Amino acid sequence: MTEVAENVFLIELSKGNIDFAHSILVLDLNNSNVILLSSQYQPSKKITPRFEQNYHLGKIIGDNLYTAAPTETRDLLGLHILNEYSDSTAVEHIYINSQWYAYHIYGGVRHGECDCDQATYLKIKDDVYLLGFRELAVDVAIILVLDFKLMRNTGFAIGYTDEQWFSIPIGAHMKKINKRLDDYNHHAL
Fold it and tell me: Taking CA atoms, which of 34, 153, 154, 165 is between 20 and 30 Å from 9?
């Protein structure tokens, strides 16, 4: 269990070693909310992405039964973020619309790669978001919790490469490169 934002915790429930299903829980103790995000790898699927991601919302029984639940959001659309994973590896993200984001990798084994992938954006609370990405170029899914107060992201890269399943914790320092499109009166789909 890792605290990924103030009183928000990320828990890896299953790593998918047997059934290619990876599950995480996000607990928002501020609002008594729970998100279960499942990523399912489908090796027999002929087209990419071979991952499907589904989320389910719940409540922690207690005092905050009437707080706002996490919801799909457009808050991030148009943002351009630089995620610095190490001194030698960074990844640009541009949140294009409600179903896609673009990335460009600097450094590391995938240096220079760029593409657009399917995305899901959930608002956990103000300045904290859960993102799910399903890559087209490789059999990888990404789960990230973004904390815009501390300007960091934390999550997992999961996938199947070279006939091996993996689940790797990841995290980066974030730098905002621009404003949202709505700040300029432009609106994405």
Answer: 165
